[in-house]
Structure formats: C-alpha cells, structure tokens
C-alpha cells in the first residue's frame, strides 16, 4: 500500500464517524485541516457533480451489505482540483445489520491530467478497457440473478451513453424481464412474460448466437416488419440485441437502445459483444447459485432460525457445524427469543437422531418452545410445556435442551436443563468454567416432569456459552476432556470491545468453531450459542424495574423479590432492600390474590437533592379498593396495609381508567 500510495479508511456507520490513515488524509487534502469526520462533511469536499453519485453508491452498498467504488473529484484548500478513487466493503454485525465500511483510497489525479491531455479517442479506449475490467469484476462478485440484473442495468458504458438497458431470460419461449433502466414501468410490464415471436430481432440473435445491431427505425421496419409494433411502442430509434450464451446454450438476451439513430462502430460493437459474454457467464452461475440456495433455504427453514434478533444490552453469536456433507440435516438447534419486560431467552437443544425425521421434529419443537417463552412463562413452565408437547407428538423421539432466561437489566440468568450439558461462562478475568445447572429428564420422556431453575449472575462483559454435545464429545474424546479443551479455548486472550475492528464475540465463536472443525472424524452436529452481557447503558443499571405478574402465579413473587434485591443493590441503595422487598411482596400478593387479572409491578429510583427516593407501583384492573383491617393476634392475614402504612414514607391508591394503582415511597 505504501509503495502504491494507497490509503485506508474505516467508517463507523452507526456513529457516522469516518477515520482514515495519514496517507488517506493526504490524498483527500485533509492534512493539517480541521475535519469533524462525519459523512456529510466528507461529501461537502467533493465536486458538486460527483457527490450525488458517491452518496447513491454508498447508500446502496449499505442497504445490500455489499461493495461499492467510485471515481470523484475533490478541491483542495488551495483550490487545486484532484481526483480520487475509492473502493469499500460494508461489514455486518452479529445480527446482520450494517455496522461499518472499510476500504482503500488512492490518488487518481494523474489519470485526470492524462485524460485532459490525451486524445479523446485514446481516452475513450482506455475507459472502455477499464470498464470491461470493472464490469468483469462486478459481475464476478454478483451472486444472485437479481445481483446480475442490478449490475448490468447500472453499467455506465463509456462513450455510448445508452438511453435504455434491459436484461431478460428465456423461459419456455417467453421473455422474463430480469431488470431494466431507462424504460417506463408500464412499458416494462407490457413486455414482461410475453411470447418471443420468431420474427423478432431478439429471437434472431438467440437463434444465430450472434449480436443484432439496428441503427435506425427505418432499418428496423425494413428488416423486421412483423415486429415493428414492438419497436414503435418502445420510443427508441436504434438497438443492439446481445444474445446470452453459456456452455453453448442460449439463456436470454440483453437489449441496449438509444433515443437517436446510431451506427455503432467496430470498437463499440466489440465492447457490447464482450459485455454480453460476461453477462451470460455471470447469469448462468447466478442461476445455479439461486437453485442451490433455494434448496438449502427450504431445508434451513426447518432446521434453524434465519437470523438472531438484536436485543439491547446483550451481544449474541451463533454457529452451526453439520456432521458431514450432503444436505446437512440434523436435530441440533439454537434460538434467541426476545421476552416481555426486556428479557431475552436462550435455547439450545438436540433431538435424538440424525436424519430428516429428527430435523422435522426439531422444527416443531423449536417453534413450540419459542411460543411458550414469548408468552412470558417462567423457565420451568416453558420446559415442562415443551416436554408435554414433544410427548404428545408420539414420535418415539426425545430431545435434550437447555433454556435460559437472561435479565438484561441486571445480568441475572435463570437456567433450566433437560438432559443437556451445563453451560460454560467466561468471566471478566478471562477464566472459563462450567456452571452447574439443576437437571431434569430429556424432553418427551416424562410429560409430567417438573424442572428446577438455577439462578446465576453475570458481570458486565461476561459471556455464557450454550452448546450441543458434538462440541465436547467424540469417539476419541470423553466429556471431561472435551469440557477441558473448550474451557481452555474460551479462556485464551480475547480483544476487548473496541480494540479490534471485528466484534470480539464473533472472534470467540470462530475460534471455538475452528477447533471443532479441525476435530477428526466428527460424527455429530454442533450448535453453538454465545451471549455476552454488555451491562447497563453508561455502566449503571437502569433506574426502573418493570415486571408483569401472572394471575395467581405466586411463584413469580419470589423471582420478583430477587430481582428487586439485585436492582436496589446495583442502584446503590442497599439500605432500602429489606423494607422494599417486604412491602412489594405484600402489594403484589394482594393484587394477584384478590383480582382475576395480571398485576404490573414498577419500581423507579429518583435522585433529588442528593437523596434517593424509591417509588413502587402495583397496577391491576380491579375496581375494588383495598380496605385497611385490624386483625386479631391469631389472624393469618390482613396486616398488609398496616405494614405499608407503618414502614413507607408515603403511600396511596390512585384510580386508573380501568382498575387502580397502589404505591409507596421510601427515601434513603
């Protein structure tokens, strides 16, 4: 790069921060000049004619997670006009969203001066030669048929300036329009999916496997009178019909048209013929890719979720390694489920067997378990319902599974295990070890099995790993050895967030998957799910805790008390824990025992004049207001409001549109 005068840049798309090395700044004329590093300021440096082109190409690359390049002019502070070329690639984060663009820039001012001094024809030939190279590169990078059509319809065709471009394939004697530019949408729709008449010039080009050039409307009417209606309605005056031939078989046709009469010279015809050959090869390859991709996508829809949803506060990474080649179908799966209240559910599982039947059962079980979790059921209930669901399928298959609900606000994990492996946690100091989770029978074995929940906490930056047994068990490796190797791999040095242009969690996932892929004679699939708790925004826990408690779900009250304790400890008011826990338990218990609807619990901490004030609210939809009672010494209930009145600094009941809101406040 230094020898060729190439600089590099890195644009953080989300923060809109543009960073370049010293050579890039010199090329752009920014050496010693103040620059706020935003994309808007960068575009302001460009020539007014070039800025819109650069903006459109960059926006398209960001939208499609692709590449882009451009040649543009920029004016230095001293007024000199310089030319620059750049090429960039958009990188995605763990959730498939555009995260940054990285690339190179180099000074093209010499090329600018050369074109100004050179003869117009020589410059044109040079541009065409460069165009063929760039078109070949762009078409080679096009993966799908849609990509090929987009690349073709955006080609600049130097020296030609066509007014219309169209790419069509032949399917059963009909024209299937793949892409066009320069035509009205109504006109494009009119000629899409129509039979290709044998007297049409496009049909002749396909039959002869050679381009057909028509320089004027008169020539068209004379040579192809039966197809004149088509040409007359198109509004064009000259055409080039380029057959697309791949492996000796015609697959389609390109149409290049002009508004005015035009007699193409030998160089122009050679350019178009070469372009037609490039498009034909690229289109044939893209069709094969689309067919294979459609088959794989159909099977993948049964096996695994296509994307992992983004959840604020955590970073996730997933990997799936099939046991062998072929269709790569198995029963291993993973899932990430956004839950009510801002929580996130993690699922890893393995259905018995390694065939299409196992994959089908896995698909049904994954959807059912995801639905149970998304409804807001606690982890033990989610696992119990999934076990009954699998048993009701009556497939003679069982499945192992681990389900973990992560409180994103406080880093607390509630894990349930059904015959699966314990998770592994990488701690903040870099060490890694398995976390024992209370286990139960595999799903589908005992429909009435009750699963126990294990609760453990994560500190900011710590990562939990869920995986299937193929990662730690093989013919020549027992579980103890496998866990030891995994913990050793996870404990290796890992760059902190922000130290590397790539997400560290993705690097860790690649490291684990790479070691597993190198294992000889791997006989089982591997599913891997990693979640890093990034901690609350700003390094401080959210000052609000909001949870819905199901009607008559008394077990949920214990979980709520634990979450409230964690919240108050993180908020820095541990002195309020005991009183707040007692009074909250009283209000929530009364709400769900004496009403037939769910209750909404909300705790907020306010900072006022250096003092902290905690306000707890419990909302329900009952219009029956609480009544303060004076129970006797032997009474087993009725003291809730007495406790609230005696211990709270303030309390009350407020009507809502439907129901009421009870509240109390504590001050530190």
Protein architecture, described:
The chain is of the alpha+beta class and 668 residues long. The protein is built from 18 helices and 26 strands. The chain folds into four domains: 108 residues, PAS domain (Beta-Lactamase, 2-Layer Sandwich), CATH 3.30.450; 153 residues, Beta-Lactamase (2-Layer Sandwich), CATH 3.30.450; 224 residues, PPM-type phosphatase domain (Phosphatase 2c, domain 1, 4-Layer Sandwich); 127 residues, Heat Shock Protein 90 (2-Layer Sandwich), CATH 3.30.565.10. The strands form five sheets. Strands 12, 13, 14, 15, 18 and 19 form a six-stranded mixed sheet that branches. Strand 23 and strand 24 form a beta hairpin. The two termini are 62 Å apart. It comes from Kitasatospora griseola (Streptomyces griseolosporeus). Keywords: ATP-binding, Hydrolase, Kinase, Magnesium, Manganese, Metal-binding, Nucleotide-binding, Phosphoprotein, Protein phosphatase, Transferase.
- CATH class label of the largest domain: Alpha Beta
Total domain units:
4
CATH architecture title of the largest domain: 4-Layer Sandwich
First-residue to last-residue Cα separation: 62 Å
The residue-averaged pLDDT reads 82
Please identify which CATH superfamily of the largest domain we are dealing with: PPM-type phosphatase domain
Q: Output the structural class.
A: alpha+beta
Runs with pLDDT <50, length 5+?
none
According to DSSP, the number of beta strands is: 26
The third-level CATH topology of the largest domain is Phosphatase 2c, domain 1
Q: Characterize the overall form.
A: elongated
Helix content: 25-40%
Our Rg estimate from Cα atoms comes to: 33 Å
Count up the helices. 18
Biggest sheet character: 6 strands, mixed
Estimate what percentage of residues fall within beta strands: 25-35%
